[in-house]
Amino acid sequence: QVQLVESGGGLVQAGGSLRVACAASTVFFTTYVMGWFRQAPGKEREFVAAINWNGASTYYADSVKGRFTISRDNAKNTVYLQMNDLKPEDTAVYYCAAEPSRFPVGRGAATYNYDYWGQGTQVTVSS
């Protein structure tokens, strides 16, 4: 069983930046693809970004490409999502997820059946 704990959410003005983190409770962190998803009120959960086990491969949703950066620190069992130029439509609960795989990530990472999910962290962007 892997526990994922997100942190770093908060309130930020449009155009600002925020970094959220997700700490994993597993010694096998490098065997997982890590993903970020978000869910806004009244909307379905949507894929944001994913990163492969060593950080060499990343994939982003079109809506965040060029603004968000996913990264991981395997020594700390943590994955990050740096969010720049935030917009009000980025307001959502952000969740991290883990899927056992050592393959590069691509379009398929958006639809993996991720095995583990965190509890989420709220990000609110004011206009």
Give a brief rundown of this model.
It is built from no helices and eleven strands. The chain has 127 residues and is an all-beta fold. It is globular.
What does this structure look like?
The strands form two sheets. Strands 2, 4, 5, 6, 9, 10 and 11 form a seven-stranded mixed beta sheet that branches. A four-stranded antiparallel beta sheet has the order 1-3-8-7, with no helix packed on it. It is an all-beta fold and 127 residues long. Helix content is 0%, strand content 48%. A hairpin with a 6-residue loop joins strand 4 and strand 5. The model has no long low-confidence stretch (mean pLDDT 96).
Brief descriptors of the model:
mainly beta, 127 residues, four-stranded antiparallel beta sheet, 11 strands, seven-stranded mixed beta sheet, single chain
By DSSP (H or I, 4+ residues per run), the number of helices equals 0
Average pLDDT taken over every residue: 96
The Cα radius of gyration reads 13 Å
Q: What is the overall shape?
A: globular
Oligomer: single chain
Low-confidence stretches: none
Number of strands: 11
The biggest sheet, with number of strands, parallel, antiparallel or mixed sense and barrel status, is: 7 strands, mixed
Strand proportion, as a percent range, falls in: over 45%
Class computed from helices, strands and strand pairing: mainly beta
State the helicity in percent bands: under 10%
Distance between termini? 40 Å
Written as H for each helix and E for each strand, in order along the chain, the element string is EEEEEEEEEEE
